[in-house]
Write a structure and sequence with these properties.
about 325 residues, alpha/beta, seven-stranded parallel beta sheet, two-stranded parallel ribbon, globular, binds nicotinamide-adenine-dinucleotide, binds uridine-5'-diphosphate
Amino acid sequence: MNSRSYNTRKRILVTGGAGFIGSHVCARLLKRGADVLCVDNFFTGSRDNISPLLGDPHFELLRHDITFPLYVETDEIYNLACPASPIHYQFDPVQTTKTSVIGAINMLGLAKRTRAQILQASTSEVYGDPEIHPQPETYCGKVNVTGPRACYDEGKRCAETLFFDYHRQHRVRIKVARIFNTYGPGMHPRDGRVVSSFIMQALRNEAITIYGEGHQSRSFCYVDDLVEGLTRLMDTDESTTGPVNIGNPAELTIRQLAEKIIELTGSRSKLSFHPLPQDDPEQRQPDISLARSLLDWSPRTELEDGLLKTIAYFEDFLRQSTGR
Ligand code: NAD
Ligand code: UDP
Ligand code: UDP
């Protein structure tokens, strides 16, 4: 039974809510007047990310691993739980696939029982190392099934399949967002992702570690823009399922990113070149025509503005950690 109770506030479950994107989603939903239940096993997330929310009576935190069943009452689910940076998702690849696949089954089972609407945080990694540029949602991708990134890519692909099968078979109301590289305050300082790594290195005047020659490209979306896109997708009517690309089409090479970060931090860092990891995608840029037409959404934050806010966050982080 879906015990709606006397409370008229929307009850929203955010899995992975103590992570980078999840903590921003929780904060945004609380601002919009929801009761938020954050579920996280703290594999890569932390209490620090959500500490500003802990005093809010409409915020609840539950330590739980979504590969195990979860029985709660809810109206909406944002399924974000999954390590997202290559070093984290390759640390325990079997658990990564379990989180994506068994976690999706549990959250879809929960959505089916409570009749909640559920949004999946899918990824541009479903396109693998793409042969089509930019990538539209219709592109089926090129993923190496047996490579080191497959635990994440194939896990997320299977999760999408499960979402569409629960939708077709059980009429579960689904939304699938394919998220492209996202950055901003709250990123893990040691997650090995390019934006966090380069900023930390630049602030400490350490060598900037470029993998390969730095000719590979990415397109970076500021987290506030991403969260706006996710909530707009959740707010669409039942017939809108996605998948919908959400990202910033402004593309640049990794070398250009390094140079931009050195310039913005005024760092004395030099570039250092290291082997390119296996299966590292050569180029990535979202085609966001669908998000523009369906959600009337496009990113608003210029890379330079977003990077300055992120740099300020890491400066603060370094100040606090040296002051401890
Ligand atoms: P993150 O690692 O900061 O957050 C993931 C959160 O999930 C963490 O708090 C972690 O502790 C939690 N978690 C992991 N496994 C869990 C489990 N089994 N049970 C409960 N909690 C678990 O990563 P993020 O960047 O915030 O990514 C959030 C979501 O967005 C992920 O699903 C990721 O795949 C997706 N995504 C992110 C990006 C990006 O650029 N950040 C790009 C594409 C997709
Ligand atoms: N599940 C859950 N919470 C719920 C309902 C289901 O965690 O509120 C889990 C449960 O472990 C189940 C899975 O979701 O195995 C899939 O549920 P579904 O109803 O699709 O399958 P079934 O219960 O028939 O296996
Ligand atoms: N990268 C790099 N140096 C680093 C970290 C990453 O050159 O210290 C490169 C990485 O090889 C990739 C790009 O930056 O080509 C983005 O890496 P990230 O791990 O942030 O995201 P993803 O590869 O999942 O898009």
